[in-house]
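Sat 14:20. Reprocessing the chain from the morning session after the first attempt stalled halfway. Input below, unchanged.
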Amino acid sequence: MIRKFDFLIIGSGVAGMSYALQVAQSGKGKVALVCKTTMDEANTAKAQGGVASVTNLKVDNFEKHIHDTMVAGDYISDPAAVRQVVEQAPAGIERLVKWGVNFDKKEDGTYDLHREGGHSEFRILHHADDSGFEIQRGLIEAVRREKRITVLENHFAVEIITQHHLGMEVTRRTEGIECYGAYILDPDTGKVDTFLSKVTLLATGGIGAIYNSTTNPNIATGDGIAMAYRAKATVKDMEFVQFHPTALYHTGETHPAYLITEAMRGYGGILRLPGGAEFMQKYDKRLSLAPRDIVARAIDKEMKIHGIDHVYLDVTHKDAEETKHHFPNIYQKCLSIGIDITKDYIPVCPCAHYLCGGIQVDLNGQSSIKRLYAVGECSCTGLHGGNRLASNSLIEAVVYADAAAKHSVEAIEQYTFNDAIPEWNDEGTMTNEEKVLIAQDMREVGQTMSNYVGIVRSDLRLHRAWVRLDLLFEETEELFKRVKATRDICELRNAINVGYLITRQAIERKESRGLHYTIDYPKHAYDYK
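Finished this time. Tokens:
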């Protein structure tokens, strides 16, 4: 079946929904919002901390936020991207509020601002400790009210359509590659339908699920990045995988692990060893409020030194009622497993959290492929550089969704549907009965990435990952050609592609920088061997 939409949006987190609302309200054409599962299952909903934006102008300003972002990113960040996000953040907050998102306020009506690691001022807008959930809720309701948006839940994008599907040989040196839409799997029919579009936006989120332990939902298999890479788009900075320092350590909860927000350390939480001793003073003068890469490596080092599976975060010295007020969901979650955070230390450990790289885009969110935009975690805007500053990601998604919407609404007049695109051909394929192989291979991807491409790396570990991923790639591509497309085999293909990209770009970076730390090219004084 062939379907036509002027704007095709793949992904329904804050990036995809913000863009959808803006292009729909432009009245420039039909809009489709394609969701891999349901609209409420996205990385956005998992974000606890909040949204960074200069708000209290009495003490804060854009230059401070820009400086904090550049420092956290180890000065790899693109200054133009950083300035664009920081200066347009307040307008982005206004759009979220207009769409129905609520942020906590003080009694005097001003925003109740938090401070998080790496920030020099209190500038984090939040909704208790479930800010992402509140943003997702507000946007979902706004999208549901917008009649010009067609929402397609439980639909899976298989491939981006380019000249390759017209029989043309497309390589990374081919000029003028264009995107004409996507092939999308309909779960009700089991068929792959052809979605033609004038403009396509990828907002498919992150890659955390390719690791054994992650704060991300299971759907975060890097689908958009893998599809864009196969279509010969430029993909950048994949080696910079952020491991959140403080996920709740609880046996059996690894996919996703429960996040203990950065704001809890901003609130005064102290990292401790099992006996109660502090340790961050050995690693950074900012102690527990150091940027995430430093804190994650410090915890990793202490766990290896002492042979332990976790460390602790302590807020028992804070007022109990205030703690419960600021972090009600964390309080209840911990209580459900027998931990009263007002009296007990919280067991925490690092796990895969956020990708700073992705599909390279310009200041308008355009990829290297014409008519293809990317926004949110699947994109590499240059904002994050070597390490994302806490709470910069949600506002990046809102600002770049705005930039991409404005640009694509103006550009769409130039484009037409390409009616020469053939429908998906699965003639001669068979129903895949080898589900056990796919499940096993996905587990092997997770083990490979966690063991060899984790917080601390080496050339030997990275090359071992390369060899194993290459073997999995060959086996999976051979199976993919023989069977009908299903979500599980497509996710496996994408996870392998993304794991390969992270590993290859990590091998290519011959230094320790930001989130990429290798014992073969150590930058820091302390040794992780």
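The longest strand covers residues 191-202.
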